From TrEMBL:
InterPro entries membership: AAA+_ATPase, ABC_SmlMolc_Importer, ABC_transporter-like_ATP-bd, ABC_transporter-like_CS, ABC_transpr_FbpC, Mo/tungstate-bd_C_term_dom, P-loop_NTPase
CC per GO annotation: membrane
PANTHER family per record: SPERMIDINE/PUTRESCINE IMPORT ATP-BINDING PROTEIN POTA, SPERMIDINE_PUTRESCINE IMPORT ATP-BINDING PROTEIN POTA
Protein name, entry field: Iron(III) transport system ATP-binding protein
GO BP of this protein: quaternary ammonium group transport
Record domain ABC transporter: where: 16-248
Keywords associated with the record: ATP-binding, Cell membrane, Ion transport, Iron, Iron transport, Membrane, Nucleotide-binding, Transport
């Protein structure tokens, strides 16, 4: 994680600084204002539902779009501001598009060398050869993009973006066009390459699992604003609101009443840090995997209404007294169902509480 990259001392100066950046796109949507600072060698995932503004923010950083207000600095140099706008080709920022945007009439080697036109030919070819070797594409240097698989095209696009040694590489949904198994392998190889080259990167995705597993830092967006920023574990375990919680997890929502610092529900009482008056209503958010099978006879129990085997896990729907809707449970443990009933307990350390409104 990012905190481990620079030890326990003061964090380094940010390579990218975004201050109150805003952009209006028609009457129905506005991005920002957005504040964000990214450290050198950090891999940041921008995540959120479609239309939340993450790709727009990427285009503003790249210079493909111009902000209405705010400032953008790279290595202390202002790229966008009240009277400054640096064109994309002069920003020292690499970009990997969702469809890779390789030049179809150029070989893979020529694609990688495209941004090195100011280099000597010998230096450009050496740089391209090194990146093709690092991306396992050396044997395909003379091929054209249509002759490569989707994963190979993605690696070629990344090599082209890295060739000019940019200060930051931006990647817009770079794995979304790949099949699931290939996507995981290419993502792993991409992150390894970014680590190996010490590249600062911003990766846009709409996939919660991809965001949690990819970046040093995850930035969750909603309706043009940043909702929460932190490590993947921060956002998963300590979401700041219901939107953040539900984006990364599925929950059972159990109504309860606030009394003496605890939320009392039909499934027991749980710690609650909400600012509520005594007797106030709230919801306990319980993940399906926090519902654990239990052999104790005095444990909660529910009638099994549905059961679905999903390979590594099994999902059950339990009808529990006091609950209006079935309780969803996911487990890897062996189950002992007696007379159609299953005893269970709740892991209280994973229960979240949010206002009922």
């Amino acid at each position: 994680m990012a905190e481990q990259l620079h030890g326990s001392g003061n964090p380094p100066e940010p390579v990218l600084e975004i201050d109150r950046l805003a952009r209006r796109l028609g009457p129905g949507f506005a991005l920002g204002p957005v504040d964000l600072a990214i450290e050198p060698k950090q891999i940041v995932c921008l995540v959120g539902h479609s239309g939340c503004g993450k790709s727009t923010l990427l285009r503003l950083i790249a210079g493909i779009e111009q902000p209405d207000s705010g400032t953008l600095r790279l290595d202390g140099r202002e790229l966008a501001g009240s009277d400054v706008f640096v064109e994309p080709e002069k920003r020292n920022i690499g970009f990997v598009f969702q469809d890779y945007a390789l030049f179809p009439h150029l070989t893979i080697e020529q694609n990688v060398m495209f941004g090195l036109r100011k280099w000597s030919r010998e230096a450009a070819r050496a740089r391209a050869a090194m990146l093709l070797e690092m991306t396992a594409l050396s044997a395909m240097a003379d091929r054209y993009p249509h002759m490569l698989s989707g994963g190979e095209q993605q690696r070629a696009a990344l090599a082209r973006a890295l060739a000019p040694q940019p200060a930051v590489v931006l990647m817009d949904e770079p794995f979304s066009n790949l099949d699931r198994d290939l996507r995981e392998r290419v993502r792993h190889d991409t992150i390894a390459l970014l680590r190996r080259t010490g590249t600062t990167a911003i990766i846009v995705t709409h996939d919660p699992e991809e965001a949690l597993s990819t970046g040093d830092r995850v930035v969750l967006m909603k309706a043009g604003r940043i909702v929460q920023s932190g490590t993947g574990r921060d956002l998963h375990d300590r979401p700041v609101d219901r939107y953040a919680a539900e984006f990364f997890s599925t929950f059972n929502r159990i109504p309860g009443t606030y009394r003496n610092g605890r939320l009392h529900t039909a499934l027991g009482a749980f710690p609650c840090r909400l600012d509520l008056a005594e007797g106030g209503q709230a919801l306990a958010f319980i993940r399906p995997q926090a519902v654990c099978p239990c052999l104790a006879e005095d444990a909660f129990f529910g009638a099994v209404r549905a059961r679905s085997f999903r390979g590594e896990i099994e999902q059950l729907e339990l009808e529990v007294e006091g609950l209006e809707t079935p309780l969803t449970m996911r487990t890897t443990q062996p189950l002992q169902i007696r007379d159609g009933r299953l005893h269970f307990q709740i892991d209280p350390n994973t229960v979240l509480a949010f206002a009922a409104s």
